[in-house]
Design a protein that fits this description.
It is a single chain. The protein has 380 residues and is of the alpha/beta class. The protein is built from eleven helices and 19 strands. Helix 1 packs across helix 3 and helix 5 crosses helix 6.
């Protein structure tokens, strides 16, 4: 059995969920705000099915996924949850009636980001004698997908005339909610507020309004509306250093493997491809069966560290597809079979996704999502 695995602590997920829920209630005590747990991209690398089951058991009102493939796979194990798909529909399906029928069969909630999508769903749902639940996406400044906020009112007015659509929700997404500079996020929020007021005056009532992602949950309490959408926070990390410690969180994944080979090499011996690392003295080198094929970044070659017991050891040489090597020193107490922590927190040693992200000049989202499917997830 491959000793490389990702240990996912579901008790820590519960802790994070409750921390988020309590924070929301503290900031907005007069209103029950729904929670949409974001589980797209295989629950940020943590395993979409198991994470979703746990979130629903904790009381999550919705689950958010990126596309319809994710949603259909999830529906097979979560029969009754509200599953909101953030991605857009492909209108060019060869058999659109069968396509829409399948989405209706799985009781999915579609994002409508254009009038064309609304027309498509309305027409084929009508042919099937069904109604399709939708959330309307409004672009207030991210410039990714959505109805342009400047022209959204007339489009939404048109959508409300379609008899085969149930307009259940409306939402937007922030570009800078995690930033200390809140000016653009507030600009987006004000644009969204203006549109909502126009819709209210126009008699268009939409039950669920939402906009707050992880950053906005901490940084913009005025953005809560009827539902919030925590993603990264659930998995134990903050969207930026500016927001740390405002909600107490625990990283839920430990990426681990084992030392499976130890060799003693002479001084001035090169290690791994490219010969970018040479030993200075006669030393012990340990080999660990994890590499970039498992989602552990090759860019950590010669600069990353791993933890064994209560001690850190530097990566020696280039990380390969299936292996990396570590420098164990001139003398070593490490033995074959010892556990190795590559990401997470254990024995007081911290190698969180945020710490790795800083080394690699990226974001913790990317570090977590990179963990490959071939890495076994073990749920604690």
């Amino acid at each position: 059995m491959n000793p490389t695995r990702a240990e996912i602590d579901l008790n820590k997920l519960e802790y994070n969920y409750n921390s988020i829920r309590n924070y929301i209630h503290k900031e907005n005590p007069r209103k029950k705000v729904k929670i949409c747990g974001i589980v797209k991209a295989n629950a940020y690398g943590h395993g979409i099915q198991e994470i979703s089951r746990k979130l629903i058991s904790l009381g999550a009102d919705y689950l958010g996924v990126a596309n319809y493939d994710e949603a259909i796979k999830l529906r097979s194990v979560i029969p009754d949850a509200n599953i909101l798909v953030f991605g857009t529909l492909i209108h060019s399906k060869l058999k659109p009636s069968a396509y829409v029928s399948k989405l209706l069969k799985y009781n999915l909630i579609a994002t409508v980001a254009s009038l064309d999508t609304a027309k498509f769903l309305d027409y084929y749902s009508g042919k099937l004698g069904r109604k399709f639940r939708i959330h309307i996406k409004v672009d207030t400044g991210l410039k990714r997908i959505g109805l342009d906020v400047k022209r959204a009112y007339k489009n939404i007015e048109q959508i409300f005339t379609y008899k085969n659509l149930i307009v259940e929700g409306i939402y937007t997404h922030f570009a800078t909610s995690e930033s200390a500079d809140k000016s653009f996020a507030k600009y987006q929020l004000n644009k969204f507020y203006d549109l909502l007021e126009m819709l209210r005056k126009g008699g268009m009532k939409i039950p669920i309004v939402h906009s707050a992602n992880s950053g906005a949950i901490i940084n913009l309490k005025d953005s809560y509306f009827d539902m919030v959408r925590p993603g990264l926070l659930l998995y134990g990390y903050y969207p930026s250093d500016d927001l740390k410690q405002k909600i107490d969180l625990k990283p839920i994944m430990n990426l681990k493997s084992k030392v499976t080979f130890i060799k003693r090499v002479d001084a001035n011996t090169s290690i791994s491809y490219g010969r970018k690392y040479f030993t200075e003295k006669k030393s012990f080198i340990g080999s660990i069966p994890i590499g970039y094929g498992d989602g552990y970044w090759r860019s950590l070659s010669n600069i990353g560290k791993v933890s064994i017991g209560n001690k850190f050891y530097p990566i020696a040489g280039a990380i390969t597809m299936d292996w990396l090597m570590i420098y164990l020193g001139v003398k070593s107490t490490v033995r074959i079979g010892d556990d190795v922590l590559l990401m997470g927190s254990e024995n007081g040693n911290y190698l969180g996704a945020d710490k790795l992200a800083k080394i690699l000049k990226t974001i913790p989202y990317e570090i977590l999502c990179a963990v490959a499917d071939r890495v076994q997830r073990i749920y604690i």
